[in-house]
Design a protein that fits this description.
Blueprint (H helix, E strand, L loop, with lengths): L2 E6 L19 H8 L6 E6 L9 H4 L6 E4 L2 E4 L23 E7 L22 H7 L4 E7 L1 H14 L3 E10 L7 H11 L3 E3 L1 H5 L3
Parallel strand pairs: 1-2, 1-6, 2-5, 6-7, 7-8
Antiparallel strand pairs: 3-4
Helix pairs in contact: 4-5
């Protein structure tokens, strides 16, 4: 089988009570745990920011949610989150982690953010995810995680643009929804780009 399940940023800081909590973000973990036995191969990404990262509002003295120009692109200002080697950057404890064969760290450069698991936001540097998938001849990428309207979306868009058959498991994603319809719009954008939208029950009943 050339299928792989890709877990995007299932980390403490994106769970309720975390520094950048995604509403009901923890609800995806039991669904992911049910999906895991259906896949022989599982990869995970982690936001892994250095202290003083350029995406942090505190770095610039800006307010959370404001927008700034950062190296020629618009950057949302976030609270400090997923700082390297902190508890907030660890996987949510209830996630079954034994089957994760490879972890991709992203957002590691001080001066640029990386929503996608594949590239930084300026597509200047790759994370190594594409190379890993190609090395192991994975062709079908099934994506779950946090958050629908940011890291899931950009990971899925890059996945399909790299030529992988890309599936987004909708009920195993949750969004930030700064604007009310951000998640739904993200699903539409992914679908329009060529990603296939599925739900976990379709996969679980077939495996």
């Amino acid at each position: 089988m050339n299928q792989v399940l890709l877990l995007v940023d299932v980390q403490n800081d994106f769970a309720p009570g975390g520094a950048l909590a995604v509403p009901r973000g923890d609800e995806i973990v039991p669904i992911i745990n049910q999906l895991l036995p259906c896949f022989d191969h599982v990869i995970a990404t982690k936001d892994w920011h250095p202290k003083g990262h350029a995406s942090f509002a505190s770095t610039h003295g800006e307010s959370v949610g404001s927008l700034i120009e950062l190296n020629g692109i618009t950057q949302m200002m976030w609270p400090d989150h997923c700082v390297q080697n902190t508890s907030g950057a660890e996987f949510i404890a209830s996630l079954q982690q034994d089957s994760i064969e490879h972890v991709v760290l992203k957002g590691t450069q001080l001066s640029i953010d990386s929503y996608s698991g594949f590239f930084d936001n300026q597509r200047q540097q790759a994370t190594g995810l594409e190379a890993y998938l190609r090395k192991h001849n994975y062709t079908d990428v099934y994506i779950v995680g946090l958050a629908t309207d940011y890291c899931v979306k950009f990971t899925a868009l890059d996945s399909v643009s790299c030529g992988f058959n890309t599936y987004v498991i909708k009920d195993a994603c949750r969004g930030v929804n700064i604007n009310l319809n951000d998640s739904e719009n993200a699903f539409k954008e992914m679908e329009n780009a060529g990603c296939k939208m599925v739900v976990s029950a379709e996969i679980i009943t077939e495996c």
